[in-house]
Hints:
The structure holds 2 protein chains of 2 kinds.
Chain A: H1 4-13, H2 29-34, H3 41-53, H4 56-69, H5 73-85, H6 90-111, H7 120-131, H8 135-156, H9 162-171, H10 173-183, H11 196-205
Helix pairs in contact in A: 4-7, 4-8, 4-10, 6-7, 7-8, 8-9, 8-10
Chain B: E1 2-4, E2 7-9, E3 19-22, E4 31-37, E5 47-54, E6 59-64, E7 68-70, E8 79-87, E9 92-95, E10 100-102, E11 107-116, E12 121-130, E13 142-152, E14 155-166, H1 168-172, E15 183-190, H2 194-208, E16 213-219, E17 222-229, H3 232-247, H4 253-256
Parallel strand pairs in B: 4-6, 5-8, 6-9, 7-10, 8-11, 9-12, 10-12, 11-13
Antiparallel strand pairs in B: 1-2, 3-4, 12-15, 13-14, 15-17, 16-17
Helix pairs in contact in B: 2-3
Amino acid sequence: MTTEAHLLTLQQWLSPAFPVGAFAYAHGLEAAVQDGRLPNVAALRGWLEDVLEDGAGRSDAILLTLAWKAESPEALATLDTEARALAPSAGRMKETALQGAAFAKAMRDVWGHDLSDLTYPVALGAAARAEGIAAPLTATLYLQAFAGNLVSAAIRLGVTGQTGGQRLLAGIAPLCQSIAAEAGAATLDDIGSQAYLSDIASMRHDTLHSRIFRT
Amino acid sequence: MKTLGTRSVLDGLRQQGSLKALFPRITGGPCQAIMVNTAGGITGGDRFELSATAGTGAALTLSTQASERAYAAQPGETGRLTTRLRAEAGATLNWLPQETILFDRSALHRRLEVELATDARLLICEPLVFGRAAMGETLRDAWFRDRIAIRRAGAPLYTDATQLSGDIAARLARPAVADGAGAMAQVVLVAPEAEAQLDPVRDILRGTLPESAGASLIGADVLAIRMLAPESHLLRRALIPVLTRLSRAPLPRCWTI
């Protein structure tokens, strides 16, 4: 059962202030902007929906849920290796590995959980299990935080303003819920990622002449 | 395949059904095996399985004589194509099939599993065409599930999974999916020179698909390339210089004619 304590914990973990450095990662958004693919907030919304439904959003929700269900550190480590193999680019590997390591460090230092440096969704799923927080709720809020971070990046990149960004985020909240709910019964074989242009944008980020984000 | 002196030669062959292998005589470079699907394509209920091993120190290039076609299937029936490749110590394996063309109302479940020894080299390319553009065909109702899983010394190294179903054309029109592209290719190189190939490959892509392709060094010796093109000819034209460079040998003739 979800308690207020659970919500407080999740809100803290998934807050933009949590020291995983989320603000530095734009998931290819900066390259997409420079390539002229995100001329307005409507295009941004379409892009974010795809990243959630066809890209890292859905894959991460499944990985998080599977990590929550893992019954041993060995099972968790095996899942983590699968998660790393799914990274489509160097930038995406950085996002999941570095944020995951930072998250795991906070779990060890502050919550006293014996968590090794796992990829981000795997670490989060394992930590939620250890705190007794339900997987679907964790996945829903994770997806919202992920989308929220990309909206913040888009605002810094000048694609939209604060109001447009918040309207977009409110609009895609139901999508976060439905993806998290579907992830509940999924297996590794159900992971499919066909947000090809998002992956390509992430690859192209490294070739930008000037950039403000790490990915 | 195994090694005999400095050459790679056939060590064993077993074929059954409509999948056959041809072995063109070539001078120099890896031994080539060209697969022929004598049935002319895949439809619902078909089962195709292919296994190949490059033995210790051997070099093998696998390709297909023609593009593979996934034809319309009966409702509820899925065609399966499973390929298992192995490269043993010091071996080189190139998996360079020609395009797979998905027809409308096709249903294809494809898997490519690759097992690498620690120091084996691998180059794979999987070009995919979404509908017969020349016939004005789009994929309004099709089913495609694909997984490329590369493992090294038993551990997952690189996985690429695609799941598309229903109105695939509408999905591909999405901004972060394919923005309407009709053809896509995934190329992966696992080799010590992967890092050195990154910039040259990016230079090639800038000239061929300046806005819809990317290359990235995912691990110290793992280079991944993703390309989208409006249609299959442009994809092929962009692939040839990349594959020629990465395979360090002439491409099978079927690629260049």
